[in-house]
Amino acid sequence: MTRARPMPELDDQDARDLARIYVITGGRVGPSGRTTIDLVTLVGAMAAESAGRAPEHRAILRMCRTPLSAAELSAHLRLPFSATAVLIDDLLSAGLVITRAPRTQVLPDPELLQEVLRGLQRL
Question: What InterPro entries does its record include (predicted)?
Answer without folding.
Answer: DUF742
